[in-house]
Design brief:
α2 packs antiparallel against α3, α3 crosses α5 and α4 runs antiparallel to α5. The chain has a 5-stranded parallel β-sheet with strand order 2-3-1-4-5, sandwiched between helices. By secondary structure, it is an alpha/beta fold. The longest helix is centred in the middle third of the chain and has 25 residues. It has 8 helices and 5 strands. The structure holds thymidine-5'-diphosphate.
Length: 213
């Protein structure tokens, strides 16, 4: 079996976890061994970096350090988890990946998309998800859904303007890369979202594998 790499993106509160679970069940039925992972994190080192990045006491963290820490956690995840899993023909579903850095650091923090790609080339070494699913949610709704949470992390304490730029950033990326990034409204019922994801995977990826045989 050929490895499959899918990332799930969207603003805070868009419902990525639910869709990842539904996708896991679908791909298991298709015969895949599944690896679910997340960013920042997914490895012992990455989870330690996550504790630093999201710690709300570190409000003095500068944007450059933030960008590099996300990239460092990603480098470890790619080497330790993603590449070996793809090499073994598994399906990897990643809760956030490079697009998060492009949108949060490149666009919302205004560091520039090209800077983010350049820094991340060290982490990615050419690797990209075959499909990126973007669950589209307005910033207001995203923050409303997160409000019930007991404690907000350092990124979640950013204001509405920041989260608006995140949502707009994702939409712009999805427009630029229509073939690889699938934009779906996060306000749809979860079964409808899942159905759209399945169609995209079958049309854009699995059919090509079959054609190759
Ligand atoms: P997490 O709680 O995992 O996100 P979610 O909102 O999906 O539950 O927190 C990760 C936070 O880090 C989230 O606010 C997005 C942000 N982030 C970046 O700013 N850049 C990145 O490259 C990644 C992977 C995440």
């Amino acid at each position: 079996m050929q490895g499959l790499f899918i990332s799930m993106e969207g603003p805070d509160g868009a419902g990525k976890s639910t869709q990842i679970e539904m996708l896991r069940d679908y791909l298991t039925d298709k015969g895949y061994e599944i690896v679910i992972t997340r960013e920042p994190g997914g490895t012992v080192i990455g989870e330690a970096i996550r504790q630093v990045i999201l710690n709300k006491d570190y409000s003095e963290m500068c944007s450059n350090a933030e960008l590099l820490l996300y990239a460092a956690a990603r480098a470890q995840l790619v080497q330790e988890v993603i590449r070996p899993a793809l090499g073994a023909g598994k399906a990897v579903i990643c809760d956030r990946f490079i697009e998060s850095s492009v949108v949060y650091q490149g666009i919302a923090r205004d560091m520039g998309i090209e800077t983010v790609y350049a820094v991340n080339e060290y982490a990615l070494e050419g690797l990209r998800p075959q499909l990126t699913i973007f669950l589209d949610l307005d910033a207001e709704e995203g923050l409303r859904r997160k409000k019930h949470q007991a404690e907000l992390d350092r990124m979640e304490t950013e204001g509405l303007d920041f989260h608006r730029r995140v949502a707009e950033g994702y939409r712009m990326l999805a427009e630029r890369e229509k073939e690889r990034i699938l934009r779906i409204s996060a306000t749809l019922p979860k079964e409808d979202i899942h159905a759209k994801i399945v169609i995209a995977i079958e049309e854009r990826i699995l059919s090509r594998y079959i054609n190759k045989i």
